[in-house]
Amino acid sequence: MSPKPLIAITSKKILAKAWGSLTEYVFDYLHSDGGQTSIKREVYDHGSAAAILLLDPDQRLITLVRQFRLPPHLNGNDPMMLEVCAGLLDGDTPEVCAKKEAVEETGIAPRDIVFAFDIYASPGSLTEKVSCFIGFYGEADRIGAGGGLDHEDEDIEIVTIRYDQALPMIASGAIIDAKTVALIQHAALSGHFG
């Protein structure tokens, strides 16, 4: 493990505060060669999250969700992103959050959950750390309709694909969400796809 860099925050200014906060930081960074630089960065913080890849090992299926995302739209990409279930922690533990999001978004209550890894999707500008899980389910674990929560303006389509479709969908660009790509690749490398 590399040593922690030495920094001293010299100023902090909140630029915007709504759903999350955008803060400008100025800090002195001490380089490994002994030099020092003053750096200015904007950091967005809306809390950390949990994500869960739902696997049906008997049927060899993955359940994902598709929903509108504004940033891809602004970049000229298809805004209807295919993703694993995920949500902000909002005071819950990551495991509790992952289970709750699975039920809200897909109606599936996974019977077993395994921690996979923590990930920062964009550590250069976002504080969000996503705790990632794999959740195993069968037909008996479908306890609701899913589709998200109306009061959170969620309009979620439930999408079920075969294991053998997942990696090719990443290669073709049909799945480009970072947490989803990482969880699918982790599941394949860990032998969860059999």
UniProtKB/TrEMBL annotation:
<feature type="domain" description="Nudix hydrolase">
    <location>
        <begin position="45"/>
        <end position="183"/>
    </location>
</feature>
<feature type="binding site">
    <location>
        <position position="101"/>
    </location>
    <ligand>
        <name>Mg(2+)</name>
    </ligand>
</feature>
<dbReference type="InterPro" id="IPR000086">
    <property type="entry name" value="NUDIX_hydrolase_dom"/>
</dbReference>
<feature type="binding site" description="in other chain">
    <location>
        <begin position="40"/>
        <end position="42"/>
    </location>
    <ligand>
        <name>GDP-alpha-D-mannose</name>
    </ligand>
</feature>
<dbReference type="GO" id="GO:0019693">
    <property type="term" value="P:ribose phosphate metabolic process"/>
</dbReference>
<feature type="binding site" description="in other chain">
    <location>
        <position position="179"/>
    </location>
    <ligand>
        <name>GDP-alpha-D-mannose</name>
    </ligand>
</feature>
<feature type="binding site" description="in other chain">
    <location>
        <position position="19"/>
    </location>
    <ligand>
        <name>GDP-alpha-D-mannose</name>
    </ligand>
</feature>
<dbReference type="GO" id="GO:0006753">
    <property type="term" value="P:nucleoside phosphate metabolic process"/>
</dbReference>
<dbReference type="GO" id="GO:0046872">
    <property type="term" value="F:metal ion binding"/>
</dbReference>
<feature type="binding site" description="in other chain">
    <location>
        <position position="69"/>
    </location>
    <ligand>
        <name>GDP-alpha-D-mannose</name>
    </ligand>
</feature>
<comment type="similarity">
    <text>Belongs to the Nudix hydrolase family. NudK subfamily.</text>
</comment>
<dbReference type="InterPro" id="IPR004385">
    <property type="entry name" value="NDP_pyrophosphatase"/>
</dbReference>
<feature type="short sequence motif" description="Nudix box">
    <location>
        <begin position="87"/>
        <end position="108"/>
    </location>
</feature>
<keyword id="KW-0479">Metal-binding</keyword>
<feature type="binding site" description="in other chain">
    <location>
        <begin position="86"/>
        <end position="88"/>
    </location>
    <ligand>
        <name>GDP-alpha-D-mannose</name>
    </ligand>
</feature>
<protein>
    <recommendedName>
        <fullName>GDP-mannose pyrophosphatase</fullName>
    </recommendedName>
</protein>
<dbReference type="GO" id="GO:0016818">
    <property type="term" value="F:hydrolase activity, acting on acid anhydrides, in phosphorus-containing anhydrides"/>
</dbReference>
<dbReference type="GO" id="GO:0005829">
    <property type="term" value="C:cytosol"/>
</dbReference>
<comment type="subunit">
    <text>Homodimer.</text>
</comment>
<feature type="binding site">
    <location>
        <position position="154"/>
    </location>
    <ligand>
        <name>Mg(2+)</name>
    </ligand>
</feature>
<feature type="binding site">
    <location>
        <position position="86"/>
    </location>
    <ligand>
        <name>Mg(2+)</name>
    </ligand>
</feature>
<feature type="binding site" description="in other chain">
    <location>
        <position position="128"/>
    </location>
    <ligand>
        <name>GDP-alpha-D-mannose</name>
    </ligand>
</feature>
<feature type="binding site">
    <location>
        <position position="105"/>
    </location>
    <ligand>
        <name>Mg(2+)</name>
    </ligand>
</feature>
<dbReference type="Pfam" id="PF00293">
    <property type="entry name" value="NUDIX"/>
</dbReference>
<feature type="binding site" description="in other chain">
    <location>
        <position position="105"/>
    </location>
    <ligand>
        <name>GDP-alpha-D-mannose</name>
    </ligand>
</feature>
<dbReference type="InterPro" id="IPR015797">
    <property type="entry name" value="NUDIX_hydrolase-like_dom_sf"/>
</dbReference>
<keyword id="KW-0460">Magnesium</keyword>
<feature type="binding site" description="in other chain">
    <location>
        <begin position="153"/>
        <end position="154"/>
    </location>
    <ligand>
        <name>GDP-alpha-D-mannose</name>
    </ligand>
</feature>
<keyword id="KW-0378">Hydrolase</keyword>
